[in-house]
């Protein structure tokens, strides 16, 4: 490992004015001690406090700081997306701005990327200082993510991660998918994903920015990611399979309707009107649904082939960023 490593530290933040000076000083001390060449990229996700002004003041003492400010709150995934685009270091570290992630973990994360050839090292906060209302749902989501992705990680959503530069330049973190970045990395073809136990520190300033809704969103995102990972480039396989099932169901209903009519005729019974037979409505519903699913699949295929539009975020100010 070289003595002069280029490291980018991407830090999304929202209303963290109290923690920023201590965090910056801590990172600078760790990198200076280890002789790391570093840039700190703060992404202010539309903070309503003095976070941006604090960053501007810090820039006068720390030339390693870069910063981007959103006009409004876009979410952590958007902040990471923009930060990854700007990062120049050969190793990219992500961490939260609330001081719950320790910069002292950086040297070991960097060492493992270089010495052990990992594409991604994800932190695992084995001992947490969160309430049970947060830890229990987190364990449930991590279990579901392991089962869905086949990636053996204990803490998918830990903010402290280290990436090889090539990795972050080949993934798109959109929506709320920051929770499942290891899955996105695997989908991009990077297989060497590791884990490192890291220290979790109790929040020192402010309050958590995440409510109970994040757990519902997390489960929905997991379902989305599961479907996207399988059918992103071939949506007709998904909708077409369901459509085929509906057409088979309609065929069975039509056959049952015909057999029942012949049976009644053979028994000398009045066959009755087709509209009086419940099998007719099963047939009709299945046929309509099958047609709709096939059309949806076709439209999705056309959208996949034509969609190349990139998502842009509303940025109001930048600091030390070359256009």
| Name of the CATH superfamily of the largest domain | Spore Coat Polysaccharide Biosynthesis Protein SpsA, Chain A
State the low-pLDDT regions, or none.
none
CATH-scheme architecture of the largest domain: Alpha-Beta Complex
CATH class placement of the largest domain? Alpha Beta
> What characterizes the major β-sheet?
8 strands, mixed
Strand content: 5-15%
**Helix/strand order, N-terminal first:** EHEHEHEHEHEHHEHHHE
N-to-C CA distance: 31 Å
Number of domains: 2
Number of helices: 10
Gyration radius, in Å: 26 Å
User: Mean pLDDT score, rounded?
Assistant: 84
Q: What's the helix and strand layout?
A:
Elements: E1 5-13, H1 20-33, E2 36-44, H2 51-59, E3 65-70, H3 76-86, E4 91-94, H4 106-115, E5 120-124, H5 132-149, E6 161-164, H6 165-168, H7 181-187, E7 193-197, H8 213-231, H9 235-266, H10 278-306, E8 315-319
Parallel strand pairs: 1-2, 1-4, 2-3, 5-7
Antiparallel strand pairs: 3-8, 4-6, 5-6
Q: In a nutshell, what does this entry contain?
A:
The protein has 323 residues and is α/β, with parallel strands linked by helices. It has helices at residues 20-33, 51-59, 76-86, 106-115, 132-149, 165-168, 181-187, 213-231, 235-266, 278-306, and strands at 5-13, 36-44, 65-70, 91-94, 120-124, 161-164, 193-197, 315-319.
Describe the structure.
- It is a single chain.
- It contains 10 helices and 8 strands.
- The protein is an alpha/beta fold and 323 residues long.
- It has 2 domains: 228 residues, Alpha-Beta Complex (Spore Coat Polysaccharide Biosynthesis Protein SpsA, Chain A), CATH 3.90.550; 72 residues.
- The chain has an 8-stranded mixed beta sheet with strand order 7-5-6-4-1-2-3-8, sandwiched between helices.
- The protein is elongated, with a radius of gyration of 26 Å.
């Amino acid at each position: 490992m070289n003595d002069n490593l280029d490291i980018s530290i991407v830090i999304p933040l929202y209303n963290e004015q109290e923690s920023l000076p201590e965090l910056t000083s801590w990172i600078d001390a760790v990198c200076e001690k280890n002789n790391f060449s570093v840039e700190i990229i703060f992404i202010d996700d539309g903070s309503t406090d003095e976070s941006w002004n604090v960053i501007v003041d810090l820039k006068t003492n720390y030339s390693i700081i870069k910063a981007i400010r959103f006009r409004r709150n876009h979410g952590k995934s958007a902040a990471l997306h923009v930060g990854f685009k700007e990062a120049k270091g050969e190793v990219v570290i992500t961490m939260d701005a609330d001081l719950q992630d320790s910069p002292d973990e950086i040297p070991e994360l960097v060492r493992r990327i270089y010495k052990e050839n990992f594409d991604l090292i994800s932190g695992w906060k084995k001992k947490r200082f969160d309430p049970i209302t947060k830890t229990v749902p987190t364990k449930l989501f991590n279990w579901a993510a392991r089962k869905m992705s086949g990636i053996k990680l204990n803490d998918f959503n830990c903010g402290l991660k280290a990436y090889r530069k090539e990795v972050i330049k080949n993934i798109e973190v959109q929506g709320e998918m920051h929770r499942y970045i290891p899955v996105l990395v695997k989908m991009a073809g990077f297989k060497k994903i590791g884990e490192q136990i890291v220290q979790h520190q109790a929040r020192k300033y402010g309050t958590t920015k995440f409510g109970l809704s994040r757990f519902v969103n997390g489960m929905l995102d997991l379902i989305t990611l599961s479907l996207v990972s399988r059918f992103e480039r071939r949506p007709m396989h998904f909708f077409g399979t369901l459509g085929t099932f509906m057409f088979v169901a309609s065929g069975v209903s039509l056959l049952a309707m015909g057999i029942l009519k012949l049976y009644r005729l053979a028994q000398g019974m009045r066959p009755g009107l087709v509209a009086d037979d419940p099998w007719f409505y099963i047939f009709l519903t299945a046929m309509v649904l099958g047609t709709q699913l096939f059309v949806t699949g076709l439209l999705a295929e056309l959208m996949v082939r034509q969609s190349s539009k990139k998502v842009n975020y509303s940025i109001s100010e930048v600091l030390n960023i070359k256009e």
